Amino acid sequence: MGASMAPTLYRGSRPGAEGRARDWAEIQERMLVPLYDSVYDRLEVGTGTRLLGLGCGSGLALLLATARGAAVTGCEPDRHRLALARRRFRPEPSWGRRARPAGGTTLLDCLPDGSTPAIGDSDVVTAFDPAEPAAELRPALRAVAARARHGTAVVLAGWGPPERCSASRVLRVAERLAEPRGPASFGYGMRLSGRDDLENLAREAGLRPDGSGRVACPFGYPDLDSAVRGLLSTGLFDAAVAATDQQQVDKEIAEALHPYRRADGSIRMENVFRYVIARV
Fold first, then answer.
1. Which GO molecular function, any one, fits this protein according to its record (predicted)?
2. What are phi and psi of 107, to 5 degrees?
3. Closest Cα partner for 216 from 164, 251, 144, 266?
4. Which residue ranges form the domains of the chain, and what is each CATH number?
5. Which helix (H) or strand (E) holds 63?
6. Helix and strand counts by DSSP (H, E) for the chain
7. Residues with Cβ within 8 Å of residue 29, at least 6 apart in sequence
8. Model-level pTM?
9. What b/e string do you get for 195-224 counting C-beta neighbours within 10 Å, with b at 16 or more?
């Protein structure tokens, strides 16, 4: 997409958690669509599938599942992202007969625990957000392992190897600026990027790894402004902002993006994401 085609919604500042959630929904979330589609194809998500999305963000992955006929439940602790997800599923007259998803939708404001009814009803459970800290995700996965039916598929996603992800160069900014506040195991700003990280997380939760895959998810932005805002919306730079200031983080992200800037001003980074399918 050329700079001349950049939508006006990518312009201007959106400070605060609400603005960042909108940047996630409007700029960054779509970068992971190839991951969502690849997993749904492999697991044959469709009519009759009951899917539980852990950390469902602003709901795009759930929306794609409902388009295939699945009934979905999404859990998202970020109230601003959750509000945007609910807005996405709100019927609008212009949608006509497509206003209601085929299987139904439920959106919850927290990650599930052992009492969440959706766990036992689900055929597929997804944890797609590669920025979700393992420490926060682990209790929900343990609840799934304890309550879901035998054979339920649980999908965990993470970054591919840093050498296969152009974004790793930019995410190193987060690690460098966050020191010493950033966690020592952050790893180039990329959580769950090690070779066995996803399998180990699954096993720690009591799940059995049963296959994996890699998916190309290029990050493409119409201009530098939307690239900086999209990357900030992931939450991976929060510790860096706390340790320094927003202006410095913005400046250093922009500098790190220069090698990926094209003649028309657009930004493109080639990335590979990895997923593991585990079973209850």
1. methyltransferase activity
2. -120, 125
3. 164
4. 13-162+189-218+271-279 (3.40.50.150)
5. helix 60-67
6. 11, 9
7. 57, 58, 60
8. 0.86
9. eebbbebbeebebebeeeeebebebbbbbb
